[in-house]
Design a protein that fits this description.
This protein is of the alpha+beta class. It is 35% helix and 20% strand. It has 18 helices and 19 strands. Helix 9 packs across helix 11 and helix 10 packs across helix 13.
């Protein structure tokens, strides 16, 4: 039985265009598309559209625009800020790109991959690996996050310190614009100075300016040498000092450098199977270091041992474990990647995805921890993240035994407490997760004046009916 508010003529046209597998209206079929991964937002939709080609997606958008139906683009539905969830009105359609899942080309000369939006990051990584290449973007949700959503949010991840965010990796893309027109800037060029870089406008726009359907992504040679170590450090400053020590020796060798607080690590060890602490005893903080090189004979082991040896002598590192096999390396990374899941299992949490200048990281973590502990006694402050590029996930987990709903009712107070400290240090209230609908209220004070006004004018010019992912990024009046 259908459950939809679509006009009958539009219903018939979309059903004919997309077929039974591409046009879902039964509420039992659409429910999973209306809830975000964190279960913070529960919306409704008139239908879920699942086009298999760019042409079908463009036609579906054109039809929706003709009838004034809002559109919520959705990829793997892994947004941390409700960026791909419809509102509660039930008027919008969700356009899911999951059926657009072909890897179209891998070019060894250009070191590029041409891929449709619905390919998961993990599938794209695996395809590159089979060709002896590497797609360097790596995030915790790579098994379900797809290329379109990753570009729409300008995702960063573990390897940003070396390769940059998604924006730096995308050479070209194809997208369906808010009027149904297809924008094709699928060029593999490293240099192309011919007016506005429209692909860069779409990357990071969170689906408010169009639906990315295909992209050209830069690849790298597959590393032939890797060295990975988990190190116990006294605090965030110790982790930052260790990063500086590696960078001083060979900045090009650093592929990832991750920070984990003792509290966050403790949750992983306690709540995630097969993730025990591989060190002799718990520490106040940890750093996960990965060095990589495409050269088989690269002396990365010597570099790792030399830097860590000096760090032991100075007291900067109290304990460390070096991966002796690929399995051990994966186990160390599993510990890092399970931090979000462990915090979810520990109860309600408020996620602050922020960035500050590298030198300000220790001060930020110390001040924000003190402020949040004063705000909510018993709160578990569990920061972790990409210390090498200044992006800290300053997550706050409810006190043990507390009421989850009562804790989440204070989310703005906690977010504002953290954000105020970030502001004094010259940082950003959103580093890589985006604004979505969670942080729209912050935009006027953080990005107001000419900056927000410019964004609104661009949105109005490309989407005059405000049908493309309404309610995201921009604060409501």
């Amino acid at each position: 039985m259908s459950d939809t508010s679509l006009p009958p003529e539009l219903y018939t046209a979309l059903a004919d265009l997309l077929g039974s597998s591409g046009f879902l209206t039964n509420s039992t079929d659409t429910a999973s598309y209306c809830t975000d991964w964190r279960m913070l937002y529960q919306g409704k939709c008139a239908a879920v559209l699942r086009p298999a080609t760019t042409a079908d997606c463009a036609q579906a958008v054109t039809l929706c625009v003709q009838y004034g139906v809002p559109i919520v683009p959705q990829g793997g539905n892994t947004s941390m800020v409700g960026g791909a969830t419809p509102d509660e009105s039930g008027k919008a359609v969700v356009i899911s790109t999951t059926r657009m899942n072909r890897i179209l080309n891998i070019d060894h000369a250009d070191l590029t991959m041409t891929v449709e939006a619905g390919v998961t990051l993990k599938a794209a990584q695996d395809a590159a690996l089979k060709e002896g290449l590497m797609l360097p973007l790596s995030i915790s949700s790579e098994g379900s996050a797809d290329i379109g959503g990753i570009l729409a949010t300008n995702a960063g991840g573990n390897n940003t310190v070396r390769y940059g965010n998604a924006r730096e990796l995308a050479l070209g893309l194809e997208a369906v614009m808010p009027d149904g027109a297809v924008l094709n800037v699928m060029r593999k060029l490293r240099k192309d100075n011919t007016g506005y870089a429209l692909r860069q406008l779409l990357i990071g726009s969170e689906g408010t300016l169009g639906i990315i359907t295909t992209a050209v992504i830069q690849l790298q040679p597959q590393p032939r040498t890797r060295e990975t170590a988990l190190c116990a450090v006294p605090n965030a400053k110790g982790a930052l000092d260790l990063f500086a020590a590696f960078r001083k020796q060979d900045p090009a060798a650093i592929q990832a450098f991750e920070y984990m607080s003792g509290t966050s690590m403790g949750l992983v060890n306690a709540l995630i199977d097969n993730c025990p602490l591989p060190l002799s005893e718990p520490a106040p903080a940890y750093a996960l270091v990965e060095l990589a090189s495409p050269r088989a004979d690269d002396s990365l082991r010597t570099l790792m041992e030399d830097v860590l040896g000096a760090a032991f002598e100075s007291g900067l590192v109290s304990d460390a474990v070096l991966a002796e096999s690929e399995t051990q390396r994966q186990n160390l990374w599993m510990i890092r990647e399970e931090h979000a899941e462990a915090q979810k299992r520990a109860g309600a949490s408020v996620k602050n995805d922020v960035s500050v200048p590298l030198a300000a990281i220790p001060e930020f973590i110390e001040k924000a921890t003190q402020a949040c502990e004063a705000l909510i006694p018993g709160i578990r402050v569990a920061p972790f993240g990409h210390i090498g590029d200044g992006n800290i996930h300053f997550n706050l987990v409810q006190p043990e035994g507390a009421d989850p709903k009562g804790f989440l009712a204070q989310d703005h107070a906690m977010m504002d407490t953290v954000a105020n400290i970030v502001r004094t240090l010259g940082g950003s209230f959103s580093a890589e997760h985006g604004v979505g609908q969670l942080k729209t209220y912050m935009m006027p004070s953080w990005r107001g004046g000419a900056e927000l006004d410019g964004m609104r004018k661009i949105k109005a010019a490309l989407d005059p009916q405000n049908l493309m992912n309404p309610g995201k990024i921009f604060p409501t009046a």
